[in-house]
What we know:
Low-confidence stretches: 527-532
Helix content: 25-40%
Largest sheet: 8 strands, parallel
Radius of gyration: 23 Å
Number of strands: 18
Strand content: 5-15%
Shape: globular
Distance between the termini: 30 Å
Number of helices: 14
Amino acid sequence: MDSANWWRDAVVYEVYVRSFADADGDGTGDLAGLRSRLGFLADLGVDAVWTTPWYRSPMVDGGYDVEDHRTPDPLFGTDSDVLALITEAHRAGLRLLIDVVPNHTSDRHPWFRAALAAEAGGPERARYHFRPGRGADGELPPTDWRSVFGGPAWTRAADGEWYLHLFAPEQPDLNWDNPEVRAEFEDLLRFWFARGVDGVRIDVAHGLLKDPAFPDLGADDEEIARPPDRAAHPHWDLDGVHDIYRAWRKIAGEFGPDRVFVAEAWVDRPDRLARYVRPDELHTAFNFDYLRCAWDAVALREVIDRTLEALHAVGAPATWVLSNHDVVRHVTRFAPGGDLARGRRRARAALLLMLALPGGAYLYQGEELGLEEVEDLPDEVLADPTWERSGHTRRGRDGCRVPLPWAGTEPPFGFAPDGVRTWLPQPAHWRTATAEAQAADPGSMLGLYRAALAERRANPALGDGTLTWLPSAPGVLSFAREPGFGCVVNLSAEPVGLPAGRVLLSSVPLEDGELPPDAAVWLAGDSRPGQK
């Protein structure tokens, strides 16, 4: 793949900065910590790193409540750390994608402070969605819209007007019908591209525009990491967002053909997702249908086929993802009845399936170590706003955000200097899951990731392109990619025979030449049935 099109088959590693590596010893990950581990990521074999927000923020929503998009928060480092990260990532052969949050700001953003101080109807408020309430004295919210984190999506200001926040009250939604908002973000993109970042992940890319009529929704149980519950939704996936992204694509082009966007767009159909990645819009978009798919051969093949059909129709590559900072880790999702050993076995097979599919892939930090969701965090440490906003009925996303175990036999496992208490506690049993403990074991999860990523990079059949499904038994996925590559995934309860071919890599050892359940294998040679 030429350098201008690197993104079409790239493997991108998500760094949740707060939980990746802590250099200054305050228990929270930072940019210096990330810089110290770039060699690990280069050795892992990924092509790029995407960082979650490290901008100035009150940290109500883990940094997705941005006060200043151009300045790092002291919690994470300095501007010098940012520039050093860009330089050192490139020196390590890694491209760098940053996170931009255009749907909302922090309530401490200068714009919102000015809006609260302004009179109703003033230009300062026009940057957000302020509206009068309903009821005799305006005491009721303007609509029945619900926050993704729980509770109403409206909060009343001191003068009686209400402002919209689809997430936490500390995250007021911007009004993207306001030209000043559009101009600010276009300037912001130019600022970061000029500083050398290679791409931008767009948070809540499907949510920027709202129906100006602000209709009631009726029943609408909003929840993080879930697509809209209806086709015509008043604040998700409105057609007008595509004009915004056409303008953004032109800005990226000002800095060269290799600067890219990836959309976080939770939509209800692959053809809706494909609209975001048309040739004059964004480059790629996360494939959440695949992430949400059950460990089931029929369901997976359907998602794969619908994804490839929709995206190839607009000339865009597919992306594949198993976990991120908003969802339960897939080791736990794939664990029937809480059987984590089986969840890890399935996760190993899922990795080989994902990396064999046409297009690019996203990894979430810690999946290369086989980490599970931490489901027993004490209530008092939970930081996700979902916990409070739901009245302590939904624990939120903290379980997938626990700081990584790097080395040693006791917390903080090399995440921070010895004796430091991490912002979320690490399970003691992670002593066997550290990167150090797995590094010398080719049979470990880390060993499998390194081997699979090395083979994917070296094998001309893998990356962007197409696949051909092959005949297979029920519960088995089998496909070929040219030249001379085959992948077989056994999701059934019984071992299955394999077509002819040399084994390149298997998620678990074969048993008498057969592929056992919950396992996958990569084959070299013509792997079609009957071929030798």
